TrEMBL record, chains A, B:
<dbReference type="InterPro" id="IPR016164">
    <property type="entry name" value="FAD-linked_Oxase-like_C"/>
</dbReference>
<dbReference type="InterPro" id="IPR016166">
    <property type="entry name" value="FAD-bd_PCMH"/>
</dbReference>
<keyword id="KW-0285">Flavoprotein</keyword>
<dbReference type="InterPro" id="IPR016171">
    <property type="entry name" value="Vanillyl_alc_oxidase_C-sub2"/>
</dbReference>
<protein>
    <recommendedName>
        <fullName>D-lactate dehydrogenase (cytochrome)</fullName>
        <ecNumber>1.1.2.4</ecNumber>
    </recommendedName>
</protein>
<dbReference type="InterPro" id="IPR036318">
    <property type="entry name" value="FAD-bd_PCMH-like_sf"/>
</dbReference>
<dbReference type="Pfam" id="PF02913">
    <property type="entry name" value="FAD-oxidase_C"/>
</dbReference>
<comment type="similarity">
    <text>Belongs to the FAD-binding oxidoreductase/transferase type 4 family.</text>
</comment>
<dbReference type="InterPro" id="IPR006094">
    <property type="entry name" value="Oxid_FAD_bind_N"/>
</dbReference>
<keyword id="KW-0809">Transit peptide</keyword>
<dbReference type="Pfam" id="PF01565">
    <property type="entry name" value="FAD_binding_4"/>
</dbReference>
<feature type="domain" description="FAD-binding PCMH-type">
    <location>
        <begin position="38"/>
        <end position="216"/>
    </location>
</feature>
<dbReference type="InterPro" id="IPR016169">
    <property type="entry name" value="FAD-bd_PCMH_sub2"/>
</dbReference>
<keyword id="KW-0274">FAD</keyword>
<dbReference type="InterPro" id="IPR004113">
    <property type="entry name" value="FAD-bd_oxidored_4_C"/>
</dbReference>
<keyword id="KW-0560">Oxidoreductase</keyword>
Length: 460, 460
């Protein structure tokens, strides 16, 4: 980069209001990290744009000086996406957090990237609508689109890529494009929307996102089912899917996780492998599903099955689930947490979780397993001392073994967290044959390699 | 091309069994056209490969001599995709039509591209599974993946892009890649699967396709609802969606279409704008949906609503719907048919169909409107004399006006048929800002422009 810190600041202040360009130390530190275990790196400057035009001006400038730019939402990434490992400009989207348009009859909403999913759901409620994708954290829609996030409801409603109808993207050279449209489907040319979703800020910067939203179901019932073993719990979940029960959520929470949940959320759930369930539909349909679920789970050695129709108790249950990652962080203040994220064909899931338990136990680390078992996606939370090289290695080894197990069975190294920094070595194993195509696309879309450099693709 | 016909034949016969390489006139003619109104062009040779290795050898050869290759399924394209407008090699996939693997517990199937959707459903039935995407024609899975097909059930189950988990693709240079995996979701790198689906043979040739399949629902009920006007029918359909009824099919068939249906399928449906409906789910849920549907359609001036639970009557109804295109072709033996294919936000649909009726009437052509109204996608069938330049122009004008109407309202020029030859000029209007990116991808993936040249993208 042929520009000093002072010049950089000066130039950016010509482009946007100088109060929204900063090298304040605390702010730089906040933008040096995310919720992952990866090492923080400071950006040189943080900017807070208010419009697409400002983002475009920033990129045009950055591109001409070959300065890295890294988009930043709320920093809830678990794979280091928001860490500016090559320095440069961190673009914080917190001022671009508006709901721009709701089209209830079309089940569409157009938002800015800095809006969080909870804020979106608050805005949708009065229309009887909701946005289902739920990764746990209250992430921004921009971040969720960038990583192709999913979560507890994806078994029913799908992943981010299924919801995004249109993206306004600022390209590396500052040009602004729209990738899609407002219709429910299209066969009009190459589907660039799907290419940008999950590209983790490496192909362009999102400034507007049009999403599909859903009517709030007539009936929602949540439930908790406890089992004697994780294997029984997973097999129970798979039996619901095989029977065609249209379940909206089916989450495995193992004994270690239930312990942390109880401590952190002041619940008294039995310390057993548990499925957290949710059913959405019309009243009669949900009632029939629940009856059938009881039969199927009984046949899979379910110890206890409790339903919550009351919306407060239901919220409590999902809040407990959502706070799980924070429960671990608070429960082990001296440790860092590494979260694994494989996804396998459902038929291989229960054995994969049993294998993971074994690998964790062998490592001597404390860890738990939990996951979106309806999708075949599960996580382990591994607690380790980041200053103890031996523990770091142990955590890395557990992660590697779980990933290798999944890849050998047709699975993926990341179901929903993305590649970021931590999974590049596994992307090379999973998609060795297509990395050259990905690299071609990256080189064409971002010839100066300014867009979140060092993420997703291996550096040549 | 620096190779004669005879040399071409000779070289190809070195690569695959000579009985499967032909310049037989009848076979060349069969591969010169599809079901669209576009002008046939003969390929120079037709090959019938039996394996991925053979396809790879053919492409490697074609690439080194810069010979165009055009994949061919059953030729049911409606936009000229299979027409080899630059000559070259037509690759017919009829011998690559196997179901390679069914994984019932994972709801996955792996097939060859020449398999048709009806053949696939026959193979799935014994597992209690089905593949929902239904474009009307009994197209091949390869063709449906290439055009990102959809159809009557997409309102519930989604489009081809939502079903394809993995593609085996032979690239222009003969290299063979896999784009995805077996897990239900992944955030592992750029989503090339979605880029190849809908790329219409211009980025690579598919040799294996892994698809998501579904359990056959406990209860299926079909129905017919007649209305006094198309507007009432569409508004009725929209009211079902807004009420959150989880409908599996909702098809508009206008009066002109019902007339052709009755003639061709020997039915005696009332000559009224009609919705063909289908409900999938558990018994209690479907019953509640049906009760609610009656109320909602009554409120939208529905004249008559008849349900068919009997599977034969249900099949008859959908067969009649599927044969509609053929009904028109047989009903007007001296005419060609042009089919329009716009998709709009649902809130704009009823006005769009009313507008289309007006435009057709003003043109003096015979034409009908029908469509997958749950997605906002509708077609008009325009009958014209291809030897009468005035009628050709009239049909083109109607098409243009309908497309422009849709684009002005955030819609797309093609909901499901693809760009092919006929929609390139409209792609330029719809995605002027992203065509340069599409072109970059095409140039990188197919530098010698041998893959279905002249389709999708405008030629520079």
């Amino acid at each position: 980069m042929s520009i000093t810190h002072d010049e950089l600041l000066l130039e950016l202040k010509k482009l946007i209001d100088e109060k929204r360009v900063t090298r304040n130390k605390t702010i730089l530190e906040h933008h040096s990290q995310d919720e992952s275990h990866h090492t923080p790196v400071l950006p040189e400057v943080v900017v807070f744009p208010e419009s697409t035009e400002e983002v475009s001006a920033i990129l045009q400038f950055a591109n001409s000086y070959r300065i890295p730019v890294v988009p930043f939402g709320v920093g809830s990434s678990l794979e280091g996406h928001a860490i500016p490992i090559k320095g440069g400009i961190s673009i914080d989207f917190q001022l671009m957090n508006k709901v721009l348009e709701v089209r209830p009859e079309d089940f569409l909403v157009r938002v800015q990237p800095g809006l969080t999913r909870t804020e979106l759901n608050q805005a949708l409620k009065k229309y009887g609508l909701f946005f289902p994708v739920d990764p746990g954290a209250d992430a921004t829609i921009g971040g969720m689109s960038s990583t192709n996030a999913s979560g507890t409801t994806s078994v029913r409603y799908g992943i981010m890529r299924n919801q995004v109808r249109d993206l306004e993207v600022v390209l590396a050279d500052g040009n602004v494009i729209h990738t899609g449209g407002l219709s429910a489907k299209s066969s009009s040319g190459y589907h660039l929307t799907s290419l940008f979703v999950g590209s983790e800020g490496t192909l362009g910067v999102f400034t507007e996102i049009t999403l599909k939203v859903y009517g709030i179901p007539e009936m929602i019932v949540a439930g908790r089912a406890t089992f004697l073993s994780v294997k029984d719990a997973v097999n129970g979940a798979v039996s619901l899917l095989s029977a065609g029960i249209s379940i909206a959520r089916v989450e495995l929470v193992d004994e270690e996780s239930i312990e942390q949940v109880n401590k952190h959320s002041e619940t008294d759930y039995p310390i057993r492998p548990t499925l957290f369930l949710e059913f959405h539909g019309n009243e009669q349909g949900v009632k029939q599903d629940i009856g059938f679920t009881k039969e199927l789970l009984d046949a899979n050695s379910c110890e206890e099955l409790i339903f919550e129709t009351d919306s407060l108790k239901r919220s409590k249950l999902w809040e407990a689930r959502h706070n799980l990652a924070y429960a671990f962080i608070h429960g082990f203040p001296d440790k860092k947490m590494m979260i694994t994220d494989v996804c396998l064909p459902v038929s291989k899931l229960s054995e994969a979780i049993v294998y993971s338990r074994k690998v964790i136990d062998e490592s001597g680390l404390y860890g738990s397993a939990l996951g979106h078992v309806g999708d075949g996606n599960f996580h382990t939370n591994l607690m380790y001392d980041k200053n103890d090289p031996e523990e770091v290695e142990k955590a890395n080894n557990v992660n590697r073994k779980i990933v290798e197990y999944a890849l050998e069975r047709g699975g993926t190294c990341t179901g929903e967290h993305g590649i970021g920094l931590g999974k590049i070595k596994y992307l090379k194993k999973e998609h060795a044959d297509t990395i050259p195509l990905m690299q071609m696309i990256k080189n064409q879309f971002d010839p100066n390699n300014i867009l979140n450099p060092g993420k997703v693709l291996p550096e040549s």
